[in-house]
Amino acid sequence: FDFCQAEGKKRPSENLGQVLFGERIEPSPYRFTFNKKETCKSVCTKTYDTTKPDDKQKLDFLKKSMLLNYQHHWIVDNMPVTWCYDVEDGQRFCNPGFPIGCYITEDGRPKDACVINSEFHEKDTFYIFNHVDIKIYYHVVENEALGARLVAAKLEPKSYKHTHPDNPDCSGVPMDISNKASGEVKIAYTYSVSFQEEKSIRWASRWDYILESMPHTHIQWFSIMNSLVIVLFLSGMVAMIMLRTLHKDIARYNQMDSTEDAQEEFGWKLVHGDIFRPPRKGMLLSVFLGSGTQILIMTFVTLFFACLGFLSPANRGALMTCAVVLWVLLGTPAGYVAARFYKSFGGEKWKTNVLLTSFLCPGIVFADFFIMNLILWGEGSSAAIPFGTLVAILALWFCISVPLTFIGAYFGFKKNAIEHPVRTNQIPRQIPEQSFYTKPLPGIIMGGILPFGCIFIQLFFILNSIWSHQMYYMFGFLFLVFIILVITCSEATILLCYFHLCAEDYHWQWRSFLTSGFTAVYFLIYAIHYFFSKLQITGTASTILYFGYTMIMVLIFFLFTG
Fold first, then answer.
1. Measured between alpha carbons, how far apart are the two ends of the chain, in Å?
2. Is there a domain that residue 404 lies in?
3. How many whole angstroms from its chain centre is CA 116?
4. Three-state secondary-structure class, residue 75
5. What are the transmembrane regions (predicted)?
6. pLDDT tens-digit profile of 430-458?
7. For residue 52, pLDDT beyond 90
């Protein structure tokens, strides 16, 4: 973007999470001194000559960004500079960003932020917010030696057509740029800043006013509670069915043991000699189980720390950094679980197993991520990850995660294979004709519905935080939903496994993994629905990026739920 640049200032350093999320912080040319009021101070003037192709391209890009409602995101003392405005029901919404400008359509309809000013009325015209009124709220510390602390920073975006850019007056008509503008276009950027003492806001709770005004917060609370009640009810039902059915079956078997004439077995007791028969593609299943365990523990620990407040929005990039570091350090459980299961499946290619655990799933994620990054590089985006960071990620993977996976696998293979309580028959049992409900696919499809039901509300807010720049901070509820998701996945899988074992189908290993893993497919369907219904993404590159990153999330979620 061709905005005013801060000359000679170094960019602040970012942590791994910020770089991965594309949160690049640029130094600002807006200068102010504490408690010194500034009025209509000039920053710079940009001139565009539409006869020059380079200038025309810059101006067209600026227009396009206004049309797509691109936003400025400013930070002062690690606090987002917010634009607060009234919404329906007398609520006040504070947005941690403000638009570059807005557009009045050819039929005179104001789009996005153009509704805030009645002077924005020219048809087929762009209005750029080239002036900001910044208000800094501070809290004086009781110990005078420490001075004051910033507790809020708010601004009001405005548009002024400065006739004398060298001596701006910040009044008069707004800065309009006609869609068919020709000749020379001058945009002068200015700002005013004022300071106000705010005794009611403590420094520790300075983020509250932003978080409290997040859209649909009250709906979110209600929805989460509603979701929790439904999920707890479903969990209770599943547990009750399991206990009652098993109790009834066991009672029936015990009764049969006491009667001499009833010799024939039925139901799941028939397949006891085949239940521990190694699954087909046992290598792949063990690798998935290892990677899934790694992701499960990583998610649990990350959310636990987030609940304790270590990974709040104030610590930029902390969530992603924590997740990546934990994933790297949790190579040992992945290797151990994969090795234990592979050995219990009777596998002997332990080297292949370790290598696949180390490289298969992380490799797919990295390849997808790398392709997305190439697209970002090609588009010249600031969100593109520098080559050095990619090398650092590879170093973490190869130098820490892979050796730890090998260590885990070593201990896994060293231990004796998991002993099965019954001996497997030499000849596989014939599986009878299955009804529609006990066939693999319908069972797997049904199995994913229940876990998805308990996360889709949270999913909406998480996708909003990723794609719509809204802050996500309800980690307590997310942790609760995470626990419930784990319980629901387990119970749904146990229930469906029990039903198809009763139908004398003993191929349960893959089905148990895919039953809850199918939740990821519903996640994908929901992400596609979200893309078409909630986002206004245009351009091939942006669409590829959305679905590329979504596929990474879907794969991780598949391994996690499975």
1. 44
2. yes
3. 32
4. strand
5. 221-243, 284-311, 317-342, 354-377, 383-413, 444-467, 473-501, 513-532, 544-561
6. 776 777 777 778 888 888 888 888 788 78
7. no
- For residues 22 and 320, the answer to whether their CB atoms sit within 8 Å is no
Task: Kindly provide the residue ranges of all beta strands, DSSP E only, lying in 62-172, ordered along the sequence.
Answer: 71-72, 75-76, 79-80, 83-86, 92-95, 98-99, 101-104, 125-128, 131-140, 148-158
What distance lies between CA 465 and its chain's CA centroid? Answer: 7
pLDDT, tens digit (0-9, with 9 covering 90-100), for 153-188: 999 999 988 888 778 888 888 888 888 877 888 888
Mean pLDDT computed over 31-44: 87
**Which backbone phi and psi does 522 adopt, to 5 degrees?**
-65, -35
**pLDDT > 70: what percent of the chain?**
92
Question: Is there a contact between 38 and 168 (Cβ–Cβ < 8 Å)?
Answer: no
- In Å, what is the CA distance from 134 to each residue of 147, 300, 525? 21, 41, 42
Average pLDDT of the residues of the chain: 84
Residues 388 and 479 in one domain: no
CA–CA–CA angle 350, 354, 358 (5° rounding) = 170
518 lies in some domain: yes
The total number of residues shown for the chain amounts to: 562
pLDDT of 359-408, one tens digit each? 999 999 999 999 999 988 888 777 788 888 899 999 999 999 999 999 99
- Cα dihedral across residues 534, 537, 538, 543: positive or negative: negative
State the residue range of the domain holding 528.
222-234+265-279+439-561
Q: Comparing 25-39, 235-249, 385-399, which segment has the lowest mean pLDDT?
A: 235-249
* Number of domains making up the chain: 3
Is the same domain home to 340 and 477? no
Can you tell me the distance from the alpha carbon of 288 to that of 337, in angstroms, rounded to the nearest whole number? 10
pLDDT at 298 over 90: yes
Let me know whether 50 and 178 are in one domain: yes
3-state SS, residue 366? helix
Q: What are the φ and ψ backbone dihedral angles of 83, each rounded to 5 degrees?
A: -110, 110
Is 171 among the domain residues?
yes
